[in-house]
Model the fold of this input.
Amino acid sequence: MAAPRHLRSRTRMTDITRDVVIVGAGVSGLTAANELVKAGKTVAVLEARDRVGGRLWTREIDGAMLEIGGQWVSPDQDALIGTLEDLGLETYSRYREGDSVYIDADGALTTFTGEIFPVSAETQREMERLIGVLDQLVAEIGIAAPWDHPRAKELDTITWKAWLEAQTEDQEARDNIGLFIAEAMLTKPSHAISALQAIQMAASAGSFTHLVDSDFILDKRVVGGLQSVPIALAEKLGGDVFLNQPVRRIEHDDDSVTVVADGMTVSAKRVIVAVPPNLYSRIDFQPALPRRQHQMHQHLSLGLVIKVHAVYDRPFWREAGLSGTAFSPYETVHEAYDNTNHGDSKGTLVGFVSDETADGLFELSEEERKHRILTSLSHYYGEQALSPEVYYESDWGTEEWTRGAYAASFDLGGLSRYGADLRTPVGVIHWSCSDLAAEGFQHVDGAIRVGRETAAVIADELNA
Done:
């Protein structure tokens, strides 16, 4: 999806002055910019890429419209839903009629309906019990300040894997419950994240039950793609969005800031750094950030996921009574969905390959990797899945200005140690992105929430 023509790309050094400069033209930065304009402030948004949207990117690949990054809208995402309404963007429901598919550790395929996978009665009881335990912990710990809970350090220094092992001896129950947090959401191995980080992930969606329910968490899509949101937000800002402007240096004092990009310098009263935390170190802060921020940022990292798009002449799985929804912690593609575009006669499947499994595939040739992935899809949908008309792999780990997916999370002990300071401003420097959200963490909804909150704080400061 092309960026609006009026967005500027500077090739020679220009000096401008604004009230606030925003680094990054993702949804959070663009939301903050629009809110500040509403409050009567002048802004400039500097974006390193040649497009807006950050981790939202709708592209045409070999004639097929593919959503390379984020794409879904769930019914609890009030901030996103309100923004879609304000921008006049339409949504449509993900196709979900028919049976889902589950493959167990022995490779046996079973179709099912509902939220719980078709496992043995004993394993089902264990999964339901674990979901109940997690929902209770989510309710008890909450999302606003999980680091303040009396058990925060205890839960933050045990891995998600070890916590599950302590809860049940049922391996299949552990594998499936672990999948919803590790591979599916944080895209890191279960031994690399803490139980507190897992609980926080569930709390950001309202409950662990919501994460288990794909019909809830992956409810709707936006007609034309979710990148329509940042494109529309950028259009509202007119000529105040500047593309191809990677920020190299931020000079700051008690009441002003100078932001130096490749083709321009912006003098302002405040700056919002609206990029993922793993990119903060790409900027030379003068004077340097405080010790605590330096340490905190080193304990945050993004995961790794391959988002696979396979387009066919028709959605053939529907003819077999399948919804397109498929899960297995034992398959190369651990989950997949019907991702057919609104009004499209062709059928599209989207699947996901995460963390260490993705590592292994990237050691293979491009053709062998494609073969392994399509073979895994065929285990769910049959041999027809082996021959798509269009095949594409989204790999955000190779994106220069992202370097991972879906969002940054802490290593062991990091959330309880540093969580309270995730969004703490450093003088005139403020932070805003979905990685820092409470509700809506790592989703567009969270990006919007943080953008609005950050803008409100700055507007109050400038009006004081």
